[in-house]
What does this fold into?
Amino acid sequence: MLPPDQYRRFNRLRWTLYAILVLAYMMAFFHRMAPGVVAADLMQAFHTSGAALGALAAMYFYVYTAMQIPAGVLADTLGPRLSAGIGSLVAGAGSILFGLAPDFATASAGRLLVGLGVSVVFVGLMRSNAVWFSERRYGLVSGLTLFLGNLGAILAAGPLAALLGWYSWRAVFVAAGVGSVVLALATLLWVRNRPEEAGFPPVHAINHGERRHWLAELRAVMANRAVWPGFWVNFGVTGGLLAFAGLWGVPLMRDVHGLTRAEASLYTTLALAGFAVACLFMGALSDRIGRRKPVILGAAVLSCLSWLGLIALPWGAGWSGLLLYTALGMSAGGFVVGYAAAKEVVVPANAGMAIALVNTGLFLGAAIMQPLFGWVADLSWDGRMLDGARVYGWAGYRNGLIVSAACAAMAVLAATRVKETRCRNQSSPT
It folds into this structure.
């Protein structure tokens, strides 16, 4: 136990560095979800089809997916300070380039840089949480992290739609890029990788054993079958939500139900708000009951039922649509427990790699489903245009929803294979 004055300094330091990293993560969520609100502007600016627009938005997810395993390695070797700091700097440069892009190719390059930069922020933050907070509180802190991160996503829905009434989409992305650069400098200046670097004892009194080369550690994580169910749950549940809310949720309400962009963005705002609240609630619930698997499985079932409701129920603009969008967002909140379950089936020193592997499923799902949704919508497009943007009918959107529901059903099967850890690391006898 630390003396009271020393504990206060320790607590102040860990929450300060947590605040810096979580602000960078909120910015990552903003970058991730913003294209859904400016979809029509992007179609007009770059004269794209639905599939091409999906590919542009998913550029973020392509590179994010490819970088998750390297991000885990960087978090476990270099530490969160360098990995998240440099990542935020690259993301800021990419956002500025995207905002200033004169053509589709330049915009794609900017989007790629944004995905490359923010790909290391989340894993670095979760690795930092694993070092600075006790294992018994990891679910709660992870839930708080995702709750705050989702506030960035919420800002990229309704508030962004309102802001676009005053500023162009280009100005907004340039400003977001400048914000990321400022956070990068704060990370490099003030974040510390471990308590020991600041003169405090480690939070975890666990003997990690002899540390092997990172490649051997990565092989051990990849060969651990208990890590993989979380990968597929994230692929089908959270990947589907991000693909939908990040690009197609607003156009569906506009094209099928005749809402304006500001009105339609309320639906994705509520989906993301439900996501944020559920992350906080489900993480705390898992810690409280001392179980991981029931929370993950329940969330996957709710996701599948929500997609089926969007396909089969006679819903429309109003309370029924708001309810289904919110339920869809809340179902994805279970993924935060998946990170805790993943880090608890590997040795503590490899927590970053395990979290990164599970996180890869999320972004691989979004990267595949965003353009796939646009592709199946293009198959049913009847040629209608509005202000230079394609307008799709219910048939096209329904096909996309069916794809999303199938992925959620796969996630339910994966959730039944999650190993129950009882909120304790399985590699340690304690």
In short: The chain has one domain: 11-194+214-415. The radius of gyration is 21 Å. The CA atoms of residues 79 and 193 lie 5 Å apart.
